């Protein structure tokens, strides 16, 4: 195949790097990576009434999230766990872990 696109006279950039890289979420507990997309992150941030950066900085893998819902601390503080559960799952996970939430912020119950 030719280095030129037919009828255009322009060189093909098949091997050129993409300008928009796929965002990768990294679990803050296990270090596991997961590909995502900007639309998913924007929608998740909008639903949580927060920023994409906060969603990314509090991401945990599905396995870690399940363990947190079961009450396993995973080396995290109660405040971190509360925020992680709020941003990474449904409110039922927060309640199941013994955490009571208010409209403004989550509070850990003893």
Layout of secondary structure:
Layout lengths: L23 E3 L6 E3 L2 H11 L3 H6 L4 H8 L8 H11 L2 H6 L2 E3 L4 E3 L2
Report on the structure:
- The chain contains 5 helices and 4 strands, in the order E-E-H-H-H-H-H-E-E.
- It is of the alpha+beta class.
- The protein has one domain.
- The strands form 2 sheets. It has a two-stranded antiparallel ribbon. A two-stranded antiparallel ribbon has the order 3-4.
- Strand 3 and strand 4 (106-108) form a beta hairpin.
- It starts with 23 loop residues before the first strand and ends with a strand.
The parts where pLDDT drops under 50 for at least 5 residues are 101-110
What is the arithmetic mean of pLDDT? Answer: 77
Helical fraction equals: 25-40%
List the helices and strands in order. Answer: EEHHHHHEE
Which value, in Å, is the CA radius of gyration? Answer: 20 Å
Shape category? globular
> DSSP strand (E) fraction?
5-15%
Give the class from helix and strand content and strand pairing: alpha+beta
Largest sheet: 2 strands, antiparallel
Strand order in the sheet with the most strands: 1-2
What's the short story on this structure?
With 110 residues, the chain is an alpha+beta fold. The protein is 38% helix and 11% strand.
Keyphrases for this structure?
5 helices, globular, 4 strands, two-stranded antiparallel ribbon, disordered C terminus, alpha+beta, 110 residues
